[in-house]
Amino acid sequence: MNYLYPMDRITRIQAFLEQNPKDSFLRHALALEYIKLGQLNDAKTLFLAVLSDNPDYIGSYYHLARLLETLEERDAAIQWYEKGMETAKKAGDTHALNELRAAYEDLIF
Q1: What is the Cα 76 distance to its own chain's centre?
Q2: Cα gap 81→21, rounded to integer Å
Q3: Prediction pTM value
Q4: What angle do CA 1, 34, 96 make, to 5 degrees?
Q5: Alpha carbon distance 15, 62 (integer Å)
Q6: How far is CA 34 from CA 1, 39, 44, 45, in A?
Q7: What is the pLDDT of residues 21-74, one digit of tens each?
Q8: Which domains does the chain have, with CATH numbers?
Q9: Using a CB cutoff of 8 Å and minimum separation of 24, what contacts does 73-78 make?
Q10: Distance separating alpha carbons of residues 33 and 96, to the nearest angstrom
């Protein structure tokens, strides 16, 4: 099998991003790779950029909020969970809404 190591995946994603720098899927994927490497602030910056440019990109709300929990930024995490739940509700995405709500409730209770 041909597995890519994290740096190989990052290099490939970055190459695709050079062609389409605002691609939310690619920036989200790159942020997840950064998390795996412990580059949490780089991941945070990317998630914030995704949600700034594309507030309907629901998956980034969950991952950003979880990351903020890891960074011990509880109040910010709560705010992003709330924004994500509102966005998921508007989009009719009950699966994402339930995931966001469960993580949110785990944090606040």
Answers
A1: 14
A2: 26
A3: 0.92
A4: 90
A5: 26
A6: 23, 5, 9, 11
A7: 999 999 999 999 999 999 999 999 999 999 999 999 999 999 999 999 999 999
A8: 6-108 (1.25.40.10)
A9: 74/107, 77/107, 78/104, 78/107, 78/108
A10: 21
